[in-house]
Amino acid sequence: MKLSIQSHVSLKPHNTFGMEVQAAQFCRLTDLAQLPALLADSNYQRGPVLWLGGGSNLLLTRDYPGLVVKVELGGIRLLQQDGDSLLVEAAAGENWHQFVRHCLQQGWYGLENLSLIPGTVGACPVQNIGAYGVEVKDHIEQVVCADLTANAATVVLDNADCHFAYRDSIFKHAAAGRLLVTAVRFRLSRQPQLKTAYGDIQQELEHRGITQPSPLDVSNVVMAIRASKLPDPAELGNAGSFFKNPVIAQQQADALLQRFPALPHYPAGPGRVKLAAGWLIDQAGLKGYRQGDAAVHARQALVLVNHGRASGSQMWALARHVQDTVQQRYGVELEAEPLVL
Fold first, then answer.
1. Which fold has domain 76-189?
2. Which fold has domain 6-71?
3. Strand pairing partners for 188?
4. Of residues 189, 93, 92, the one with CA closest to residue 143
5. Rg of the chain over all Cα atoms, to the nearest angstrom
6. Under 8 Å between Cβ of 162 and 125
7. Is 167 a catalytic residue?
8. CATH 3.90.78.10 occupies which residues in the chain?
9. Is position 135 annotated as part of the catalytic site?
10. pLDDT number for residue 175
11. Looking at 115, 219, 241, 311, which residue is catalytic?
């Protein structure tokens, strides 16, 4: 398919905050065969270039001065089956939640706790998405990439090569701007190994009278819990959880827990403790706090929302206010999850 580059294109439909900003140039990548032409194009070579998936982990504070490439590569296939073990490949442009549900319909299990997370398959290893006791790294076997510095040559990274960490990977660091994720290969199973102890999953299953849940039951419950706490971007602009749960030294955590015994905390490796960012924001009195149309969500303090007319710079000013308030009250630095441009 021929590559088509347009000028002065609105990015409002392509970011879940609903920011009305423009891209100087815009194109859709629907086929890997388009990549060589794209890399040779003067708009790409002049830069800057923004590779865009679902736009659900992005805050745009201004018009983008270069080329925005919307990755819309599609396709799902079963690569290998060895007994109950399956290797499934999904292209980068596939919708993440639809992919999870497709796997469940096929009897491919393991991703059910990650239901209803917005975005695309290609973004999942970059961010190492996670929810309800599962991180996507637990099921990624390989990430297929195109080397943008070598005429789109294929590079396949094994799990260990991706340097996965909490909401982090090599794709944010050494590989950023060099490797484009084109597909992800997942190790799944035909035998369910359910994880229901995290969050409200078990409680909601019991409320529904489900004593022997299936993976589909777990997915449905996760969807219900998320929908009850997190606003639908189609109705209220947001990028999901805006802040990462901070990881601090054990000594600092001990001092905080003496002052705030109810502070939720979790082990995060030797001498490290992960805190609940939502609790810090809530207890600082910021849940529901609003600056014009930019607000902290009234039901989930981790989520910043656009009530309609907030600009990207106004959303970022609110985020900085939240960071400053938490820093002053607890001495803890909150890091934004979305890419802010």
1. 3.30.465
2. 3.30.43
3. 86
4. 92
5. 21
6. yes
7. yes
8. 237-340
9. no
10. 86
11. 241
For residue 183, what are the contacts with CB-CB under 8 A and spacing of at least 6? 73, 75, 89, 90, 91, 92, 121, 122, 143, 144
Q: Which of 28, 101, 167, 185 is catalytic?
A: 167
CA 79 – CA 87 distance, rounded (Å): 5
**In degrees, to the nearest 5, what angle opens at C-alpha 232 toward C-alphas 264 and 143?**
75
One-letter identity of residue 165: A
Residue 242 CA to residue 98 CA, distance in Å, equals: 23
Give pLDDT < 70 ranges for the chain: none
Q: What pLDDT score does 274 carry?
A: 94
Nearest alpha carbon to residue 181 among 166, 163, 167, 162:
162
Q: Where in the chain is the domain with CATH 3.30.465.10?
A: 76-189
Task: Report the pLDDT value the prediction gives residue 166, as an integer from 0 to 100.
Answer: 87
- Residue 325: which of 272, 317, 307 has the closest Cα? 317
Q: What's the rounded Cα separation, in Å, for the pair 219 and 59?
A: 28
237-340 has CATH 3.90.78.10 classification: yes
Q: DSSP for 176-212, please give it.
A: TTTEEEEEEEEEEESS------STTHHHHHHHTT-SS
Q: What is the pTM of this model?
A: 0.91
- In this prediction, residue 157 carries a pLDDT of 98
Active-site annotation holds for 337: yes
